Batch of 2 targets.
Target 1
Amino acid sequence: MKYYVQETCFYLLVLIIVIASVFPFYYAIITSFKAGTALFEVDYLPTSFNLANYAEVFASPNFIRSIFNSVFIASATVGFAMFLAITASYALARVRFQGRGLLLMTILAVSMFPQIAVLAGLFELVRFLGIFNKPWAMILSYTIFTLPFTVWVLTTFMRDLPMEIEEAAIVDGATPWQIITKVFLPLLWPALVTTGLLAFIGAWNEFLFALTFTASDTQRTVPVAIALLSGSSEFETPWGMLMAASVIVTVPLIILVLIFQKKIVAGLTAGGVKG
Amino acid sequence: MAQINLKGLRKSFGSVEVIHGIDLEIRKGEFMVFVGPSGCGKSTLLRLIAGLEEISAGDLEFDEKRVNNDVPAKRGIAMVFQSYALYPHMSVYDNMAFGMKLAKSNPGEIKERVHNAAKMLQIDHLMDRKPKQLSGGQRQRVAIGRAIVRDPRVFLFDEPLSNLDAALRVATRLEIAKLHQNMKDVTMIYVTHDQVEAMTLADRICVLRDGLVEQVGTPDELYEKPASVFVAGFIGSPKMNLLQGAFSHDFDCTTVGIRPEHIEIQTDGAAKWRGKVVHTENLGSDSFIFVDIGHTEPVIVRQIGSHRIPVGTEIGISPIDQHIHRFDENDQIIG
Amino acid sequence: MTSYPQHSGGQSLAAQRRKAAFWFLAPMLAALFFVAAWPLLRTIYFSFTDTTLTNLYGGEWIGFKNYLSYRQLSSGRVIWKGTLVDPAWWNAVWNTVRFSVISVAIETVLGIIVALILHRNFVGRGWVRAAILIPWAIPTIVSARMWGWMLNDQFGIINDILLKLHLIETKIAWTANIETAMTAVLIVDVWKTTPFMALLCLAGLQMVPKDIYEAARVDGVHPIKVFFRITLPLIRPALMVAIIFRTLDALRIFDLIYVLTPNSKATKTMSVIARENLIDFDKFAYGAAQSTILFAIIAVFVSAYIWLGKVDLAGEGDR
């Protein structure tokens, strides 16, 4: 008897956790399918399937534009960070040199920087380079967190590769560059995908820099577009459309995350860093 | 092909010195085995010769040319690792051809050398497999094949059998012995902690202890004339009986050593020692009888064939005089 | 990288590798200097000037005036000025600290609970783990808006649930009300970041060898005692790392608050108020000073942890 009570409580707890995790997104979805006054009735189950909000979102050129901006910025940032991080993490993970520990700590410290601390300096830099209100401003500034993150995670992955494989390659006459490109990268590609995805999510979600370094609606990234999406007054927030936009930008992320679930967990715990 | 000279070789990791100055000459075409307990520095020594570790002091010469600062690939060595260290993403063929491809050898020659090596090791039917699809023994052959393809002056083995099961270990040991027969002019250096491997494979054995050479010699020399208590105890299975105190004073030394096969059971009253049988191990071909004669450890006596002596039986045993090893207070051999 | 005694004749492997390492690291370090170190130094410099947003290069050195200065009136009264006597700033500091301590504490406890549940083998565990990843995958801004809708005073579902359960009598303006704004922020943050905490704790739990639990069960140790005496000490290192990362993250929070409770005095954190001054209020140098203080606080926090030597963040210890 006691066993059944315990089991019931356990599964009840599991149920609560699942509902708490999923409900807000579920609620956003059912809201996004409501239009007109139906929006202002609280329903726990889907009651209508009205695509008006989605039509409105896709009819808004600026929102579509912001999706493209975000995709471009996040991809470029991740590409750039990965390019620099692969060789750097090899050096940090596999080569013994003085000050390696200190360097690793510094890189970790940079990834934990309060971004506000560099905002003023970056603002000046962005203005100086003439890239204010251009995607390059975001690509430049996002490097401050994507680069240390990718270096850090890839370093932990590289460290786990067996020593003897590298030594076999050395005996075979491979240079460090050849070890990376011909031996390590083919072995690490799952880790690269994971790291890239986490960095991509980080760049996709960034808000502070994107808010500060863009000025016109055509240059916004998705988070800024969604944050600034409002009606003519505070009391006329277009909730239906807002929820539709939220669903549109979140669904691809959730699908990606669910596909790469196991790898993401490994990546998160390897880096111990929030993506 | 190469004669290797180690002159006062030292290695430190940080402030800890692990190799304390080793002088050793390895002859051309010789099969040299480094043996010793774990932590004796044998693997480090091999890695110094391979060039995978930096030499802290002393000289390393291949054919009288100093190679201290040559990268491994330039030394003309090939190495077989304990974990095989095959490239998991490459086929067997690519694993074996990788070194030559990096060296930009001509493709025809690569193909020929890889196929010859594969044939020699009977792995030519596995060329398209990935390492994952191979058994432990096959992997080890591929690793050896990869080394052969490099056509090295010096062949280095780092405990290559320790990941194999007992039966496969014996078979692969034979392979390696054959390999040595077929590649007469290639110098081979082999690291192991297993004295049986050392005894069966080596032309000469170098016994290492705490980063120093304890003794170098042929297996017979080491077995018959161990230079120290350590070597006496390390080489041979079961261990040589080493007796101290009153037992050794009879022989005018600090430690006296007698191998189990050099002790006779005597039924008459002339036995040197008397004691009770505490345990017997019967292997069929021979038997080991453990006799408590009042020493800290029982004396092991080897008898040919199957001998069953009940535990508790009191027997007399005597060492054969010409096979007694006497060691002084510094554990070194006397005379 | 390091000085290395050059031998004659060729380059040893270690030297070759160190040289390669230098060239592998150089571009990354240059990039980091460019986007992190230099802007940080400029921010600190700006904090000692009277630079304005419209005239970035016209600022003059004014020393500590943005931080603290005083002026004595002819009457003898001393008037203090600067961030360090600015009540709005101290309010933000208090908000940030309150938010960080409470959110990290709740997230840690909930994270451990969720991790313990996921550590058990049960039907559908994979699905539950997937479900708790959803809050983590949703962009912060999107979650802020989603919850903003759920917490809406008139049409929000939260008020509806609470009313139906008779937990409240009248609808609450969660985000607008001074008393509840911080609670609203905490709810969303806990919802969004507990999965991260749970996953890190779970990884820690999975590293504990199973036979320890079996031994404890054989010995008949009570499960609660097992948790406090065995599990918790064993996952402590993983937990500490997770808590540090979360705390640092909480101390710099900006986006959630900016979107969920805009302009609420009860939730404005250091990052929010610093950006406000930097960009919106054209008190550029003043905002730079506040940014610098936040940076200093976090730097002190991090170095304290490292110096206490409690955590091996770099994972170098066992190498």
Target 2
Amino acid sequence: MNLQINNRFKSILGLLLLISLYFVAPVTAAQSDSTVVDTVAKVATTATTDSASVDTAGTAVVTDSSATNVSEAVADGAAVVKAEEATKIAPQVYKNFFYYVLLFLVACTIIAVVGKIHSVYVLTRKMNGKYNPLSNNNWQAGLLLLFLVFFLSGTYYSYSVWGSWAWREAATEHGKEIDQMFIITLAITTFVMVVTHIVLLSFTYVYRMRAKRTAYYYPHNDSIERIWTIVPAIVLTVLVLFGFFTWRSITNVPEELQKSAIQVEVLGEQFQWHVRYPGADGIIGKRNYKMTSPTNGYGIDFNDKNSWDDIRGEDIVIPVNKSVRFHIISKDIIHSFYIPDFRVQVNAVPGMTNYFQFTPTVTTEEMRDRMNDPNYNFIMLCNKICGSGHWNMGKKVIVVTEAEYKDWLSKQQKYFTEELQQEFANTDQVEGITTASVN
Amino acid sequence: MSSTVISHDAGHHDAHGHHHETFLTKYIFSQDHKMIAKQFLITGIIMAVFAMLLSLLFRIQLAWPDKDFPILEVFLGKWAEGGRIKPEFFLSLVTIHGTMMVFFVLTAGLSGTFSNLLIPYQLGARDMASPFMNMLSYWFFFVACVIMIGSFFVESGPASAGWTIYPPLSALPTSIAGSGLGMSLWLASMVLFIASQVMGGVNYISTVLNMRTKGMDLWRMPLTIWSFFLTAIVGLLSFPVLVSAVVLLIFDRSAGTSFYLSDLVVGGQILPNEGGSPILFQHLFWFLGHPEVYIVVMPALGLTSEVISTNSRKPIFGYHAMVYSLVGITVLSFIVWGHHMFVTGMNPFLGGVFMITTLIIAVPSAVKAFNYMATLWRGNIRFTPAMMFAIGMVSFFISGGLTGIFLGNATLDINLHDTYFVVAHFHLVMGSASIFGMLCGVYHWYPKMFGRMMNEKLGYFHFWLTFVGAYLVFFPMHFMGIDGVPRRYYAFTEFPFMEKWVSVNVLVTWAAIIAGLGQLAFLINFFGSIWNGKKATQNPWNSNTLEWTTPVEHIHGNWPGEIPTVYRWPYDYSKPGHDEDFIPQNVPFSQTMSSNMMHDFEGDDEAVRIQEQWNKENNRVVEG
């Protein structure tokens, strides 16, 4: 029966091989061609294959580019011919594809041959009466044991290499608590993962099937089951309580601290962030999305005088060791305000304001020293799928000393620009006069 | 009306005698649970291959973000102009990959296949409670699949708002092209799919409750049945909520309502919608969405329990604890959905509550993992390909489940939410673990489905490629997440701190490609063995459950003659005193006097007396 499968398999395989050989034959020829060209002028071949592959633009462009390439390097007739072919269907693309298909089929053939050799070996063992029906079983058990080694060393490798790439200490006050909890959880889970895998994969080896053994009939043991219900329950309770109180302390900031903090509003839209500082009065003016206009993209309600001195921040700049309360809002769809280094994240949801209050403890300069990277920056990312530009919707976050912060703030522009003031004055003249006088 | 009922009944009785089965009624519009199971399985496999190809496409983009692959343009046209996948299409790929894998493969393909196959077989029923509804369930699912694939052929492209389709992104075609016709098709497909699930679920539950054979009380059901039963309950209670979410979203999109929309300025356009809340959708979605992950993983746990017990030649350890932990998971799964929303601006106190319920659910999961290991202990383990996949499933369930302790903790979730850590977590614990549960089921019950054996060698080859591949693909992602790399990013090139991960992405993508190609070994094995496999014997794995008492050739009604009666629980493997290492469920205790234990009789005094007398006559000493 086995043979039958393989026969059919072989014929299909052979057919596929033939087909792809047919397609690949010119490739190999072309490749040997190009190796010759390579030795003459490497630049020419790479350039032509490039142009051959990108050539949707049209005849003119391709011939142009190939012409320049050719003039640059040693002219080669084959290259020009190739480029002209490419103007229509880019056969090189198909050829490359079938080249990989062929490679894959070759790999399949090798595997099939190895499998066949193994079957022949097993057959001869059987004929000689030396075949052990459990030998495959032992093999698989051994492989699982080997996998255990791979798994443990892989875990070690990834923790030490990728772990060190990934881990940076938090640069905020509450972030330190999160880090501490993270490390405790990591220690517990890693321990459990390693121990359970050692148990799982050594049991499979130790208790692999033997000819003369029967398994131990052992349907249950209530006391053991009770232990491994209660122990995880206790560990989890500890983690839950620890987590719950930390979570409350992060999200449930007392009202007076909320008021004394620096207020910053961040508005997300596809695909950028806007930052608004409250200005001298310390109060962020009202926003009304219905007031959004080409000049007032933020939708600030300038009827609210608190908004007149609101400051537009190019980046998010905050002073170190000062509590900052972020008001996160969205103009269109859901975004997420996420600063990995600060352990800060909250979604920007249209129609509601979310808050996150935290205290940065490390300035950007200090962080650069710490990272030994003079270009390092804290970055705020959008972390909720929001469309085609989701992947590059970020904003630089700069932590500075208080003096630098004040200095920076004084240099920023106001949202209520001259242009807007005029527009505002025109629409509402009475208010407009006071506007002009105040500013 | 009544006359049609009568004539239908009459026809049904006739059909027992002589079959007028055409190709159409036997293979296409079949009402036979075995055929419907195969239909679900093959459709599921096709969807899995499709969804896997999508994942390879975006893996290629992630590994080589600056490279052109002109061949992609040949296949994808404008979505990969110049051989580079476009960001919008990248989002479509991740969206449809997720949707198909979660719903079509791991929900319908897994529980649809094995609930249909095993519930009647293992309970000793001739078919499902309602075969016609069962057929409808498949065809609704099939149409849902066709519509979802069809969405690749509309001009604005398939849905691309993520598989969670959070509005407003999914509600406003102006915010992303995929939210045009593509999203409408997604929603239509999902409504049909949910209808299919509800019909299936009603059927599974009523079959389990009403159609068990004589002697099959609830505590004698195999764990597979327990898991399918509880899965169906979870599905029946949660899927309708998704329908409501989807229907309201359809209203928002098409009828101008504002259930989820408020205060929106999109592309400079001030929208008239007022008063809705996007958070409402998230609540409705995750009220299904979280139970859904248990819908996905519980059947896998059930199949694994059965396979591990059979191949360890040992009763499953702590059968009652296994059932109770499944029940615990079922109940708790409904009150943990908020852990997907810790940072959405949901009331933080509520977040704290959800965190407590979430971490409680880890306890029954832990019990299950430990019980699997205890089952292996002092077993006599036979490594069939199914057993290999079952062991792989346990491994994934542990290593993926443990990271849930991070994500379920609201405090840690602040920094990990929506990063690659989440991707790694759920791909291990519900993706890989469930797929492995499903494959373990396919390898184990293939002889029952097709009457032939699969090729073992290819099976092992498939297992090792997939097992090692899956770990190589998903394990590194944890570290990207800890570093703060968000998921669904088109390329890691825009922010300097992510660039170091591109090299890891190359490893991940190669692992994915090789493991993906490895699935060909499975496909060849699966489809080839249908015609060319070795003929199966009636009970190839020496298993106890009832499906192995049916003849190899499928017949209408499963058993020729009487339905077997059940006398014992399904896990009498290696019972001391018996000459074989298994005792099928339909073997009465009177035939196994030498191995009976006193607690087998559950307080039946007469049986105990007979047994004691037999023991005395045969000098048998019983411990305990």
